[in-house]
Amino acid sequence: MREESGRFESVHGGAIVFSAWLPDEDTAVRRVMQIAHGMAEHAGRYRHFAEFLTRHGFAVYANDHRGHGRSVLPGEPRGFFAERDGWTAVVDDAREMTRIAKDRHPGLPLFLLGHSMGSFIARSYGIRFGGELTGLLLSGTAGLPPRWEKWAVLAIVKVCSAVWGIRTPCSFLHNHSLDTYNRPFVLPGSNSRYHWLSRDPAVAHGFDADPLCGGIFPAAFFRDLADGMLFMSDPAQVTRMPKELPVIFFSGDRDPVGRNGAGVREAYRLFLGAGMKDVTMTLYPGARHEPLNEIDREKVFGDILAWLDGQRPHRPSNS
């Protein structure tokens, strides 16, 4: 596998850093995979999956979202998207990553895989730009947030912003989420708050040790995330996706983000109700939030590859 790193200037301001993983010189690129990572992590955590894909002829691209990894904007806190319309900015950045990948590999099928917050970005992308994709893969996604939840989050954000400003870390929302997710999976003797990610303890400890992971995000981030979740789960918006676009949901049935599978089923039914014609769902027994980092990850990789191989006749537009 060959590795590259690059950057592009976002139309919303700031430099966005990306990673590219390509097959060895003697392996032809047949398809392209773009990855949208989750909250408080970065593209580099998908290197092991990229290594698998490149062996099967994929070129893999993943940008660090604004406010994450190597794309934290100068002078801004980790997790900060933008002064306003941050969700639009992060989805537009993903589209620019697509453009770069398409320019490098013209005419090849391009798939978008989003994990967790990245799945929310990918779902928003599918609504706005779905005609550019060959297929959409959604890992560790969530269901339909009740409208009261958005208003509760926004009320807390408003208080935090008025008292401390939109760039100040919003510890209440951050800590409430982590503590709720991790409580069922606490291991004796471990101080990690990330055992909800995987049954493999090394994943939690690796997340803790990674200097590009974690951090307490500012009020502006939670404002933008609430906006994005409401947008991507609005039935009227989902109907804008191309009906022929193949979609696969895959999650663990012990994933707290997907409410142990209930939220994933809600999202699956939402897509079917919007008239999507090719929607698949897999819930892995016992798996937690990160199927790509689970103890049976090789099976997950194989299942994904089998699904991708079945999508070869479909081609995106080049718009």
Reported CATH architecture of the domain at 2-144 and 234-309:
3-Layer(aba) Sandwich
Number of beta-strand segments: 8
In CATH, the topology of the domain at 2-144 and 234-309 is named Rossmann fold
Strand numbers in spatial order across the main sheet: 1-2-4-3-5-6-7-8
Write down the overall mean pLDDT.
93
Gap between N and C termini, in Å? 30 Å
> What share of residues are in beta strands?
15-25%
CATH homologous superfamily identity of the domain at 2-144 and 234-309:
Alpha/Beta hydrolase fold, catalytic domain
User: Largest sheet, described in full?
Assistant: 8 strands, mixed
Query: What is the tally of helical segments?
Result: 10
Radius of gyration equals 18 Å
CATH C-level name of the domain at 2-144 and 234-309: Alpha Beta
What is the N-to-C order of secondary-structure elements (H for helix, E for strand)? EEEHEHEHEHHHHHEHEH
Query: Judging from the principal axes of the Cα atoms, what is the shape?
Result: globular
Low-confidence stretches: none
Look at the helices and sheets and give the structural class: alpha/beta
In percent, how helical is the residue content? 25-40%
